[in-house]
Design a protein that fits this description.
Blueprint lengths: L1 H5 L1 E2 L2 E2 H22 L8 H18 L4 H33 L2 H9 L7 H37 L10 H33 L5 H20 L2 H8 L4
Antiparallel strand pairs: 1-2
Length: 235
């Protein structure tokens, strides 16, 4: 470890820099794998895309459409909640960056990883940036769910109308894009939490990143919910 800490990249020791690269690389990799899974092993997100398309096909013939309106409203409320939470976290992180002496003294009191002020600011700023990305994704997801609601309202009530199913497919695509943005926001929240382990040092962040990868992989590729959805997938 002495060799690693003897090299510096700006305010970061080599171990800190390696942990940061591993964190960002893991975030990008699991995001790409989730949205582009192998054909023989679809992710939870990919399976839900099929169910969202089936939802819009069923929507064409469902009368009245109160259930569908309630579903979209519930999805929008979820994005609002997470966006508000992310914004509060961003504010807290910026407050710490403006006055890092508090967390530095806390680290000294509990014998946590030490370092210069700029290193502490970098650690906190990384978590804030993940939070900011999550906030932007949640806001865009909220907007897309609103667009999906408008597209659904434009679907004709008559299933025999030639525009009924094409417009339902358009609404499904907007709905799917909204869900993708929401999931990207959630992944950013997960990795923002993993970044907090950096306050304990680079090895702690390596461990937290691996744990986060494991949690995300299991929920996308190995959960019991995924197995349930695979039983009768939409065609």
């Amino acid at each position: 470890m002495n060799l690693l800490t003897s090299f510096h990249v700006g305010p970061l020791a080599l171990a800190d820099f390696a942990a940061l690269v591993f964190l960002v690389g893991s975030w990008l990799w699991i995001g790409w794998l989730t949205e582009h899974p192998p054909p023989h092993r679809p992710s939870m997100g990919k399976l839900m895309e099929g169910y969202r398309r089936e939802w819009m096909r069923q929507f064409v013939t469902r009368m009245p459409r109160l259930f569908d309106g309630a579903m979209i409203d519930g999805l929008r409320q979820s994005t609002t909640f997470f966006a508000s939470t992310a914004l509060i976290a961003i504010g807290g992180g910026l407050a710490l960056i403006g006055n890092p002496e508090q967390i530095t003294s806390l680290a000294q009191e509990f014998a946590l990883a030490s370092g210069p002020r700029l290193l502490w600011e970098t650690r906190i700023l990384t978590a804030v940036l993940f939070g900011a990305n999550a906030f932007l994704k949640f806001v865009w997801s909220h907007r897309l769910f609103s667009y999906a609601a408008i597209a659904m309202a434009a679907v004709p009530n008559d299933p025999a109308d030639p525009l009924a199913y094409p417009r339902a497919e358009q609404a499904a695509r907007v709905n799917i894009n909204a869900a993708k943005s929401f999931n990207r926001g959630l992944r950013s929240v997960y990795f923002a939490l993993a970044t907090l382990a950096w306050l304990l040092g680079p090895l702690a962040m390596f461990g937290a990143t691996l744990f986060t990868l494991g949690v995300l992989w299991r929920r996308e590729f190995g959960s019991s919910s995924r197995r349930a959805l695979l039983e009768n997938p939409p065609q």
